[in-house]
Amino acid sequence: MRPSHFAMFLLATPLVLSPIRDAQAQIGIDIGIGEAIVTAPPPLPVYEQPPMPADGTMWIPGSWSHDSNGYYWVPGTWVEPPSPGVYWTPGYWGLRDGLYVFSSGYWGPTVGYYGGINYGYGYDGSGYQGGEWHGREFSYNRSATNFGGVPVKNAYDRPIGGARPGLRPSFNGHGGEATQPSPQEQAASRQGRVPPTPQQMQHQQSAVQSQELRATVNGGHPAANTAATSRPRTVNGPLGGGQPQAHPAAAERPQAPPHEAAPQHQEAPRQEAPRP
Q1: Could you tell me if 28 and 181 are in contact, meaning their C-beta atoms sit under 8 angstroms apart?
Q2: Do residues 204 and 74 make contact, with C-beta atoms less than 8 angstroms apart?
Q3: CB crowding 254-274: b at 16 or more within 10 Å, else e
Q4: What is the DSSP secondary-structure string of 123-159?
């Protein structure tokens, strides 16, 4: 992700960096200093989780990212974990002292703090209710997973958090989520972290180059058929060469959060011309 010109200025100015350090102290965990923005990210968009492409993949929720051209949406998608036994902790924006600071996501043995953001599909603000590891085998919670037609070896049924009314904020702080990290989440942040996989990095690079995912183009509301994909995107098309799987419309699941509206057909992402 390319840092914005404003973020580069912040990183080069010691007097401006102090609020970011204060933000770290207030949140109580080590957050990234890769981005510091004065405007809030848009609310989380409405989208339906696409069907999983294969048993063994794990859901990564969509989120807003930022570069010198403003905010852009990185679609939710299914990815292969880097190794058995690890979970994804989503990145999040945190507002402290007038700056929106981004904390990058990571893989680890437990799910850490992600700002209390209700991303849905198991990520309801704390921990992950979409599945769990049993040794080297991952078991999925049917209440938070769209299997599509994929035969899944291990699954169970467990209710997840209830839906929240209204728009869901995409940041932590005044005007957004007000939660603070628990002792367990603070401990998780100090455990070994594994960075995003190459699949995830290619997926984000594709989002950077997609005009339809830009908040300046979609008004902060990416279309349902682009807000999430069955497979990670790449600059030249879906990872693995195949098209993202389409899924038919269906009634909303009872446990679905507000943004999980009736599913839309998944379409192959458009190729965007590289930025000069």
Answers
A1: yes
A2: yes
A3: ebbbbbbeebbebeebeeeee
A4: BSSSS--SEEEETTEEEEEGGG---TT---SSEE---
Residues 6+ apart with CB under 8 A from 260: 46, 47, 48, 49, 120, 121, 252, 253
Burial label, 174 (beta-carbon count in 10 A; 0-12, 13-18, 19+): exposed
pLDDT 10s digits, 183-215: 999 998 888 899 999 999 999 999 999 999 999
Model pLDDT for residues 148-192, shown as the tens digit of each residue: 999 999 999 999 875 555 678 999 999 999 999 999 999 988 888
* Domain locations in the chain as residue ranges: 5-238
Q: What is the pTM of this model?
A: 0.74
Instruction: Using only the alpha carbons of the chain, give its radius of gyration.
Output: 18
| Proportion of the chain above pLDDT 90, given as a percent | 63
Instruction: Give the angle subtended at the CA of 265 by the CAs of 261 and 269, to the nearest 5°.
Output: 115
Quote the pLDDT of residue 15: 28
Burial label for 191, CB within 10 Å (0-12, 13-18, 19+), is exposed
